[in-house]
Amino acid sequence: MLKLLNVSKRRNRFLLDDISVELQGGYIMGLIGENGAGKTTLLELIAGLLSADKGRILVEGLSLAEEEAAVKQEIGGVFHGDMFDIHDTLLRNVRRYGRFYQNYEEGIWQKYAALFGLDGKKRYGRLSKGEKLKFALAFALSHQPKLLLLDEPAANFDKDFRQIFGKVLREYVAGGENTVILSTHLTSDLDMLADYLLFIKGGRQLLYGDIESIREGFRMAAGEEYKLKLMKDRIIHMESGAFGARALVRNTGRPFDAALKVWEPSMEELMYFMEKGEG
């Protein structure tokens, strides 16, 4: 469904370098990394808002560079910043921009507007930040894209709406044809929604794969520091305290010292120790 083949982009001093992903329909991919890692740049490249310096982006087998208009029909996006006319109502905005999409249906927008608590008569410029993101999501869904790109919207949603948001995304991919890329800092979103994970640090691809395989590839280990240091070739990052140490280590299949406490890392532990440890 989506293929990124050695995609690179330089923006001033920042380099997003050699990103390669292949993702089939029916899945949600979590896109993670600290601020400035390149997540938004990557989403903007896939959306066609930026042009790659190197590599290829394919959606539904179509090259973004060679068939941009057709590819953009298959993509919906939720980005930060005002993407709509701030002086117009929500309904006039969706009618104006919806006509650019072959599969736009106002009835779909109305359904999600009602679910999200949006008033079509309200001016876009009077919405809160969270409401603007809800509106952008409702509009993106209204033109029935095959690929939905979400740039950290959930941090602006309250707890109750995050439940609705999760349900909408699961329903969106349930048929096996649609795909979501969800950039997020919220590990609860990853635990609840993500099937795949792309971890970027400093513009480089650190990890990519299905979440269960990634978790199986690592373990958290805690105990006496000297015992952990005996596994120094497997340690990603270790932190020491008054009562011992803990570390994220590669799970190579080799046995662990029986005196160590060992467990599968949570998504929060995996993100934290990978950020601290890998170069």
Offer a concise description of the structure.
33% of the residues lie in helices and 30% in strands.
Write the layout of secondary structure elements.
Blueprint: E1 2-11, E2 14-23, E3 28-32, H1 39-47, E4 54-59, E5 62-63, H2 68-73, E6 75-78, H3 90-98, H4 106-116, H5 129-142, E7 147-151, H6 159-173, E8 179-183, H7 187-193, E9 196-201, E10 204-210, H8 211-216, E11 218-223, H9 225-229, E12 235-241, E13 244-250, E14 261-263, H10 267-277
Helix pairs in contact: 4-5
List the secondary-structure elements in sequence, H or E. EEEHEEHEHHHEHEHEEHEHEEEH
By CATH, the superfamily of the largest domain comes out as P-loop containing nucleotide triphosphate hydrolases
Q: Widest sheet: strand order?
A: 6-7-8-3-9-10
Q: Any low-confidence stretches, pLDDT <50, length ≥5?
A: none
Would you tell me the structural class of the helices and strands?
Answer: alpha/beta
Nearest-angstrom radius of gyration?
A: 21 Å
Q: Sketch the major β-sheet.
A: 6 strands, mixed
- Helicity level, as a percent range? 25-40%
Give the mean pLDDT.
94
What is the CATH top level name of the largest domain?
Answer: Alpha Beta
